[in-house]
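[recover] target loaded
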């Protein structure tokens, strides 16, 4: 059985390997005057250089000069340069093993170091466990362990020993976290947790699988199904406060594992680990179910008014013919009245002769119906579906505790009134019930004839509750998307601490006063220079500010060269590109198994799953379009290896590779991004005004940005972006394409056919031309 590994080969090299970069060598291996004096006191050049090498390697990385270890030539040359000794003398060092041992002992005493012994294993495990409390990643665990051993003045043991100590510390941290999550539970709660993994004949599945299946389509049956699941989760008695007993990362690790692990796999876990995973899953499920129920409530209440509005529109359209007839009748009546007035005749007789009195009387019901339709309020139309409201509203109101402040207090009282009516099974709304809606028309409708209409009242309260939840004026504890607004902000002590480190005035009044004075001075100066005509390319013409357009920055010769270079770029398949990027950057090492931390045995499965995320193709279609990768393999890989955390780590690896490319200097120092530019609105429409910017819309104007763009990040659409974020990002594709690829004519002609290829570009660090400008109707097969 293969030994479990905590680090990849690249990570081992970064932590334990000797540096070869000039900056790293200077930082770690510059000798002090005392060091140089101590080394030059040795007899012979070879011993002086060998002593300096041992001294440097005991400081960093901390192992000393190991038997058979090759010292990199740049490092050796730098030490020899400081001692004014030829590097070739090092080949003769330590012909006598005793000389090497004597030097090591003397250096250890000089640095105050001692050797790592078996008695220090417990210390190493404690250090590793302390770091692993907040992460499962091998590299930060080992780095923290190494730093801890250095702080305790220990010579580092072998890398294998350090890695095994890191594995042991991580296991200990996982065990402690599991104990903390289950410490307050009772035996009865343990039994209910274990029962989640037992098949239930009524559900035709395990209760855990049933809880995970959260309905999405808005309907009364589905919202009641969500509320039923929410009640089931709450009945187990696992409170959200338990999550605060462990580090947030460690808790999220249990949540991620519990979200993807099937029941049979959880059953094979140890009792402590299984129950801790289920506890974290239930806490997360309660939050997700609450958000899903509130979101579906929002959609259901909104659909009542949407359908009412559409019904009114249909009735308007159906009455078009009647309105035309009535208008013609009204026109003839006006003409008859005008004729009677001019001829001094009998008005009634003239109308009866020209129009027909009986026709006017017959049209009265139609006129009244149209007037009623025009004056119909959406509240009354929505209340016609009151039976739909009653199917879910009582259960929804009882499921949550609503909070509000200030003006929202009346709404909370209205919700309590509805709860009381439901609890006592009463129909009549009591006198003096609060009317928490701002619409005065609604207040008149609800209190018509001095009596509160139950249907209109409940519909209006629920609609107002929906709007206030959306606005954040009403919040619900235990949710993620409908929490109190200030919970998204830093706490007051944290905000004070952050503000104290800022180099600006933190008092709002002082700051605004200072900025107002600065703005006034600048506007006064601008006005004076404008009147004197001293502003370059800016003038005041007939009451309007005129700015001369900026000349093009790019010369025509560069445009021509750009087109020629664009024609030279090869047409590549995105799968080939992804493989090459993986080979160059080693970003696949960031996608680790959620449980063991191992890399995937089949890199092609990881690449296919990433490609399915990035192109919105989906796992099933990707499996059908791929060779050698099945849907089961992709699904398992997607669940256990692809996570937001792993995507971030992979992106960091790619960005690190970007900065080693010579072209990266054109991106600036990374202190600014495209969203940092200041936008200046202009007075006239520009060419390409149909290109909608997600932030500034289609308003004309330049965006000034100093320095230029830096590498940017894209997350998979299907997994991480909502509709609004997806639309905003898509709106910026043309600008991103032109900035990164240059003004390619193929990309300008087709607004979105290149996007699947462009998504891979930031990961590649390579110039690429789209293989096809138009989207395919069927997915291509990938090798």
């Amino acid at each position: 059985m293969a030994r479990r590994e905590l680090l990849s080969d690249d990570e081992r090299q970064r932590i334990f390997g000797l540096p070869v970069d000039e900056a790293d060598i200077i930082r770690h291996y510059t000798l002090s005057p005392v060091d140089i004096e101590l080394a030059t006191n040795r007899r012979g050049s070879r011993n002086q250089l060998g002593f300096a090498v041992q001294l440097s390697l005991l400081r960093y990385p901390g192992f000393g000069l190991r038997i058979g270890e090759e010292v990199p030539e740049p490092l050796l040359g730098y030490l020899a340069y400081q001692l004014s000794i030829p590097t070739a003398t090092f080949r003769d060092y330590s012909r006598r093993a005793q000389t090497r041992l004597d030097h090591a002992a003397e250096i250890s005493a000089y640095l105050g170091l001692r050797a790592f012994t078996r008695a220090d294993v417990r210390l190493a495990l404690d250090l590793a466990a302390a770091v692993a409390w907040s992460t499962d990643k091998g590299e930060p665990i080992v780095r923290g362990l190494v730093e801890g051993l250095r702080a305790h003045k220990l010579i580092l043991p072998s890398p294998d020993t350090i890695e095994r100590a890191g594995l042991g510390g991580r296991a200990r941290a996982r065990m402690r976290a599991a104990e903390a999550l289950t410490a307050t539970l009772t035996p009865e709660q343990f039994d209910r947790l274990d029962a989640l993994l037992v098949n239930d004949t009524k559900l035709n599945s395990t209760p855990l699988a049933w809880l995970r299946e959260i309905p999405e389509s808005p309907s009364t049956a589905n919202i009641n199904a969500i509320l039923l699941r929410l009640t089931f989760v709450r009945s187990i008695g696992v409170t959200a406060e338990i999550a605060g007993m462990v580090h947030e990362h460690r808790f999220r690790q249990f949540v991620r594992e519990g979200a993807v692990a099937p029941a049979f796999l959880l059953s094979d876990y140890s009792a402590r680990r299984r129950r801790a995973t289920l506890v974290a899953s239930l806490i997360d499920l309660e939050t997700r179910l609450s958000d899903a129920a509130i979101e579906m409530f929002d959609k259901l209440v909104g659909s009542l008014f949407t359908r009412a509005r559409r019904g009114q529109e249909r009735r308007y359209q159906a009455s078009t013919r009647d309105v035309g007839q009535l208008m013609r009748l009204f026109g003839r009546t006006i003409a008859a009245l005008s004729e009677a007035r001019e001829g001094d005749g009998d008005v009634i007789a003239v109308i009866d002769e020209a129009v027909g009195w009986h026709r006017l009387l017959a049209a009265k019901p139609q006129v009244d119906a149209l007037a009623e339709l025009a004056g119909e309020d959406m509240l009354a139309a929505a209340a016609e579906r009151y039976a739909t409201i009653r199917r879910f509203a009582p259960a929804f109101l009882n499921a949550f505790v609503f909070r509000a402040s200030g003006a929202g207090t009346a709404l909370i009282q209205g919700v309590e009134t509805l709860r009381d009516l439901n609890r006592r099974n009463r129909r009549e709304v009591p006198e003096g019930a609060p009317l928490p809606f701002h619409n005065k028309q609604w207040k008149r409708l609800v209190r018509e004839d001095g009596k509160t209409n139950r249907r209109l009242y409940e519909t209006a309260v629920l609609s107002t509750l929906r709007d206030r939840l959306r606005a954040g004026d009403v919040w619900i504890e235990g949710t993620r998307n409908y929490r109190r607004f200030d919970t998204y902000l830093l706490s007051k002590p944290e905000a004070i601490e952050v503000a104290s480190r800022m180099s600006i005035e933190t008092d709002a009044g002082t700051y605004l006063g200072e900025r107002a004075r600065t703005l006034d001075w600048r506007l006064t100066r601008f006005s004076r220079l404008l009147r004197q005509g001293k502003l370059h390319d800016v003038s005041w013409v007939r009451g309007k500010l005129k700015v001369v357009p900026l000349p093009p920055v790019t010369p025509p010769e560069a445009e021509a060269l750009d087109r020629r270079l664009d024609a030279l770029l090869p047409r590549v398949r995105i799968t080939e590109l992804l493989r090459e990027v993986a080979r160059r950057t080693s970003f696949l090492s960031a996608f680790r198994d959620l449980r063991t931390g191992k890399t995937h045995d089949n890199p092609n499965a990881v690449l296919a799953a990433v490609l399915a995320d990035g192109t919105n193709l989906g796992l099933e279609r990707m499996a059908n379009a791929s060779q050698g990768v099945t849907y089961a393999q992709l699904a398992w890989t997607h669940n256990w290896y692809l996570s937001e955390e792993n995507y971030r780590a992979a992106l960091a690896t790619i960005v690190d590779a970007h900065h080693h490319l010579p072209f990266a200097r054109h991106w600036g120092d990374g202190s600014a991004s495209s969203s940092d530019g200041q936008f200046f609105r202009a007075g006239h429409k520009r060419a390409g005004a149909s290109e909608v910017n997600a932030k500034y819309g289609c308003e004309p104007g330049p965006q000034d940005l100093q320095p230029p763009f830096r590498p940017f990040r894209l997350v998979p659409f299907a997994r991480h972006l909502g509709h609004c974020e997806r639309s905003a990002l898509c709106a910026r594709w043309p600008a991103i394409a032109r900035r990164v690829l240059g003004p390619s004519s193929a990309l300008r002609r087709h607004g979105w056919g290149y996007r699947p290829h462009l998504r891979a570009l930031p990961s590649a660090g390579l110039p690429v031309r789209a293989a096809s400008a138009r989207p395919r109707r069927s997915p291509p097969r990938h090798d």
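[recover] notes: The two ends are 32 Å apart (CA to CA).
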